Structures are given as C-alpha cells and as structure tokens.
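Q: Predict the assembly, please.
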Amino acid sequence: MVSSMAGGLIYDIKLSSVGPGKVIEPDVVHEPGDMDLAMKLHYLKAIYYFGKQAFEGLTTLNIKEPTFILLNHFPATCGRFRRTESGRPYIKCNDCGVRFIEAKCEKTMDEWLEMVKENASLEKYLTPNQIIGPELAFSPTVLLQFTKFKCGGMSVGLSWAHVLGDAFSAAEFMNTLGKVVANEKPNRPINLAQMKTKSTNTKIPEKIMEDPLSIKRVGPVGDNWITVNNCKMEALSFSVNDTQLSHLQSKISSKGTNFSPFEALSAVIWQCIAKIRRESEPKVVTICKKSEQNKADGNNQLISVVKADYPIVEADPSELAALMKSASFDEREKIEIASEKDDGVSDFIVYGANLTFANLEEVKCYEFEYREQKPVYVSYRIDGVGDAGAVLLLPGLPKNGGRNVVAILPENEVIELKSELKREWFMD
Amino acid sequence: MPEMLPKFSTSVKLKYVKLGYQYLVNHIVTFLIIPIMAAVSIKILKLGPEEILTIWNSVHFDIVQILCSSFLVIFIATVYFMSKPRSIYLVDYACYKPPIMCRVPFSTFMEHSRLNLKDNPKSVEFQMRILERSGLGEETSLPPEIHCIPPNPTMEAARNEAEIVIFSAIDSLMQKTRIKPKDIDILIVNCSLFSPTPSLSAMVVNKYKLRSNIKSFNLSGMGCSAGLISIDLARDVLQVHPNSNALIVSTEIITPNYYQGSERAMLLPNCLFRMGGAAILLSNKRGDRNRAKYKLVHVVRTHKGGDDKAYKCVYEQEDPQGKVGINLSKDLMIIAGEALKSNITTIGPLVLPASEQLLFLFTLIGRKIFNPKWKPYIPDFKQAFEHFCIHAGGRAVIDELQRNLQLSAEHVEASRMTLHRFGNTSSSSLWYELNYIEAKGRMKKGDRIWQIAFGSGFKCNSAIWKCNRRIKTPTDGPWQDCIDRYPVHIPEIVKL
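A: Predicted assembly structure:
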C-alpha cells in the first residue's frame, strides 16, 4: 500500500472501508444480468471537484457518516462477487462495504485543473484504480477517494464497476449521497431483498448466432477483470461551449436536417480519428445512448452499431452524422444471448471493441451537491477501454452550457487528435 | 446406579420432596418459633385474667434496674448501628453505544485481515475460523483507527477513542442521574491496557472540571475483572467517607492494543475484543436510598495468581517479530473453572439458602468419610439469584459457566446476547448485560443479581446486587434500537 503517488504530488494516502449502518438480512444476493456481465471488464471513473466551503471543518468521521446511511440503500455495492457452480458470477450482499481512501494533494485546485488541461491522464491519481480481482471475494466493486487540495478544496473520486450499472446509475449513487448529506431521505427502499435463486436458465440454446458487432471477445481473463491493451490508453478531455457547438451544428447540417450535439460532435471526431488511423480507419462504430425506459439501476444503455461502406476520411461529416442519427437497432438482446451462452463465464468488452461513442449528455453529474455546494467541475472517464478507443459526451457546467468531451485513445493518437481538432474545427 | 438417579430425580414425587425439604430448612426458625409461641399463649390463656394481673403486680422493678437495662439496650443498639457497614447503592449506570461508523461486519473484518496479513494466509485462515465460532454478531464495533488498512495506532488515536467512549458514557449518566460534576466525591477509572500520563481519571477531571479535593483512582493492568475491582474499591472508600458518591468508569481502549503480528495465539483477542464502556454512580447517601436502582450486597474477589500456570495464562508479550500482543494459553478454560470453584466456595455460604448449604455440607462430609466416589453436590445457585451476568469473555467462557452452574439458556441469555451484539467489551460487558435484562423488562424489585467476571492474573470476581425499586423498561441505552430483535439464535458455526 503506497503512501504517496506521482512523485509526492498525491500523498498521505489512508485506506479504510465504509459500509451500511444497518445489518442486512442473511442470504441476500444480487444477480447481475447478462448485459451487466458483458460490461464487467469496464470501470467508470468520476471526479467531482468541490470548492473550499463544501468540506470546511469536516473531520474524516464527519465525511464517513453519511456514507453509512447511503449504503443502506445500495446493498449490491457493498457485496462481493462469488461464482455459482457453473461459474456465473453473482454478488453476495454481505455488508463488506466500499473502500474509502483519503489523500492530500500538494497543489491548489486551480493549479491542478490547469495541469489536467494539459494532461488529462493526471486525473487517474484522484480516483482509486483497483480492479476486481485476482480474488473476487475480496475485491470491492465501488471505491471512493477524497483528496484534499492545498487550498482546502476537495475532490471526490469514484471508481464504479460497470457491472453494477451504467453512468446513469453511478450518477444516481453520488446524487443520493448528496441527498443524505443534506438530511433528505432517499426515495429508495432499504436492503432490496433478493433471495438467491437457483439457476433458472434452462433455456434451449438458440441456433448458434454470431457475436454481434458491438462486442469483442477477450481473454479469458479468469478472475482478473481487466482487459489487456496492446498499447497504453490515454485520455484527452476538452470542452465545447454553446457558440462553438451551434457553429459546428450549422456547419454540418444539410438539407434542413438538424443534428444533435452528440451526432455532430461524434461525426467530426470520427472523421478526425479516421484521418489519424489512415489505413485502419474505423468503418464500424458503436453508439451507446440512454434508453427510453426509466430504469434506475443496471446497464440500460441502448447499444447500436453503424457501418460506413465508404471511406470515412473523404466523407462529408453530415453523411456521418446522418448515419449516426439513423442508428437505432438495439443490439442488447444479441449481446445478452452471447453473454448467456456460457452462463456469463466468457469475457467481453463493449467500449473499445469498435470505436465507441457514448452519449452521456443526460447523466445528472452536476446534481451531486455537498452541503449545498455545487461541484466546480465534474469529469467522467472509463477504464478498461479496448484498443479501438471510446469517446464520451458529457454535459458541460450548468452555468456555461456546452459539452465536455472525453476521448480515451491509444496514447500516440491523443496528441494528433488534439492538433487535428484545433486545426480543422477550431476547438481547443 | 448413576443412570437410574437422574430418572428418579426427574420424577414428580422427588420434586415435591425436594420442595418440601427446601421450605422446611429455609424457614426452620419460623417453624420452631410458631409452636413455642403457640404453647406459651395457650398456657397464658389457661391461667385466666386475674392470675395474669397478680403475676404482673408481683414482679416489681427497681428504678435503677430499669435505667440500667434501658441503657444497656441503647448501648448495644448504638454499637450495632455504628459498626454496620454503610449501605452502598447503585444510583444508575450508563453504557456507551458506538456510532454506526464503527461497525465491523464479519466480511469487512476478514477482508481487512487479509489485506493486513498479506503474507500469512494461515493466520488469516485461523482468524476466520475463530470468527465463525466466536458467537459475535455483525454489529460489533471497533474504534475508527482500527478500520484503517493497516491500522496506525498512535497515542492521539488512543486518546481520541478514550475521550469518545468515556465522555459519552459519563454524559449519559449525568443526564440520567441529574448529578452535577462538582458533586462527585470519588472517581475511579479502570482501563487495563491503555495507561497514559496524565491518567484517564485525570482526563475526566479535566474535562468535567471536577473538584480539586476529589479522590481519584486509576486502575490499569487489572484485566477484564477490573470493573468489579473498581466497585469493591469504591465500596471501601465509601465506608470511610460518609454522605458521598462515587463515579466509576469501566472501559477498555482497543486502539493501542490491536495486535499487528501473525502469531495465532495472539490474534484471538483481535477477533473478540470490541469497543465499549460504562459509567456507574455509587452512593452511600441517605437521600439516594429511594431513587437508587440497586443495592450492593456482596463483593467477593478471588485471586489465583499464586499459581504459576494461572499467572501466565493471559500474558502480554512480544512475538518473535517484536510485535506486542496478548498471549492466551490453552489451559485458560481449566484455570477459569478452578478460579470459579474457588469463588463460589466463598460466595456459597453468603448467599445460598440454608437448605442448599446443608445438602452441600452433607455431601462434603459423605465424600470425605463414606465414599469419595460420590458426585460433589453443586449447589443450586438459581435459588439464590434471579439473574446472572457472566462476563462475555467468549463463547467458551459462557458455555463453561453454564455447564458448571447448571444454568438454563434463559439465565445466560443476557451474556450470550451481549457477546453477539457488542462483542467482548472487557470490564464493561457486565453492565451491557444488566441493561439487557432491564430492557427486556425482566428486572423486578427484590431480584438478586450475580455478576461474575474473569480477568488476567488469574482473577475471578463476583458482585451481588439486589434490585432496590421497580425499574421501568428503559427507553434509552445501547439496546434501545435492537432489543426487539433479541434473543437471536446463534449458530455453532456462522458461514462466512
């Protein structure tokens, strides 16, 4: 266990655990669905930056106390993975808890944010980076890191295993924490009891179907739930304000069709990446969108795939945008069948199987308030992305509008993309 | 012959014979006096009223004789009342309830254990087996510093824990008894393994601004039975100081004593000891007689330290790596049994009804003279006490005592449930158990309670209380939010 990272930039690291305040009933389990298990090699990382007032005068115990109330409502996050006899993973809700990390940063928050603008990968020091494994039964699925800056500001880092749910679920988790801190009662039941079901799936296997395009088989990774990349993945993050956005949208729109910010930005970035990748330009991309159903927990994103039959580099961005707009075929069922084929034992990746664009515009990440203080800045990223890379579209600061884009790509592509975007589309 | 005996004794006939015998022997004085008084009154009535008057007039008393006899009577009465020890009353007590942030579920304990003892999987395995069979539940508490991976027990963290536990308990007690800090005359704090300078009692004096002429004591190193040693000390000091009260704080501070090595015999306390503390107010004031909850009847202390094995059975030492921990010897249960026998031999004559003492005497004589193979008679302590508070040292201790004293499951319920809910809180566990009995509404006026504690040394101490007034089921206290879930069935082995 290290007590400092990044050459002393982050220091005084302390580990402990927080768990639910109430004892859970015995034999409660959470059984992730096939879609959830298909996402198990991905990890969502979120950082909420708060100014001085939010955490002023609070001791560690003061900060821990609301988490004990919060976790009464999220028994699955406190459990640990086990495997059934057939090897299918499930979570035993045993109150083990969430890992809690405290750290200090020797820079002020403003200095840090400046540094991050240049090098977004620095943010990995503000979130815990433990994966699930090698011992499933002793690996937490959710980790929290509270890093105090020299100026008194605090960043709240969340590591959320994607198998528990998508970015919408993770945001819901943090927003509920904010509610608990404000002494509001979360409108979720406590300790959703779910008794262990005997494996019911004695479905006759359908005719052998090919894996859908949106996923890629990897591994087997065994009990080490992370995919191995051929190259180091880095993150690039930049913001697009409303003016730039509308300028972009108008530039791309053709024949009167208006494209949403997501379609416009994705088309533009798709083309830039194609230019960078030259011969191996991505002809197939995966698109993740929020599903229309209003389910709270779990992996409920709509996953679809678009294929371009023509060279991307020379295409008109509006064609690409139109292609993205037309993507509607939900591949989730196909993914679930592939995942269920060997009872959840196979390992897949979704993000990075192809170049993936995830529309997280509607993630309520700015709703997490701590003692009535809104976050100064929020950043989300995904770890465990495959080599093809992923681009996340996040909401911008509420008062500024616009969007935040996070691109997770092989490290050599990141610099090129930055310059490409600057040159072609005047974005910084 | 022995098999027949149990069958015979469970038959209804013998039960009634036993009851009759007990009633006869326990009330022998009444049974003797009644016939004598009856005979005398019959004789007097036979005489007739005139004869009674003549006898009365013939007996004439000298004024000197009358004065002398009255002085004698007054003198004897005064000597009796002066030499009678002052009655000591327990006004009230309060137990510390740890906050939810200190809760340690089994799974968290095991995970932390695994991370802290990365290089010793056998020790981790051992801890898991202990925990499975320990009788502890999922709501016991450890202090905040021990939740860290790895724990870093600084002096400051230990003092913090002491402050949280002790001040909470005292605040709670002061609220219940409405006593002011300047009214406290005697202060005794007992905490075995944490003894800073200035002492914990000085810490209490400082926090509550107690009087400068307070009689303060700090007992350290005396193990889990130190709570009753404090009660004994308070009783003795209260004999010397009339019209006074004594505040006793019993606790054990876990932070500095969490064993960080991997020796198995020394890992056991980590699995059992948990955070807890109690504050008790004793008084010898007349005014407290009516509002006090309990009256102290006896305190009996037995020390087996003269025997080397007993002395070394709970021993603090360094392991081969230099890490300090408490080594529990394998003979602990046997030594505990012997210490218990010693203690109840002294207590027996003080509390047992005459019937049980007679039986015990007969079997003792019989064994010595007639046949040594006779089973020793174990006096039925259930006749002397309504409630038993056995120190929740561990499941084995409670099992052993239940067997030795032939107690039913209900008698040891308070001990087992305290072990389950709070773990082994050392000297304060007796007070959590007493609180359990009150919270269940089982305490009635006149009930007699026996508190037994074991501790390093090896010591076995007992305190006997009598319930002084009707006790309303408490609405506050550590059991308040969970008493309805108890009693729970505690399985032999919990599957982790």
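The two ends of chain A are 38 Å apart (CA to CA). DSSP finds eleven helices and 18 strands in chain A.
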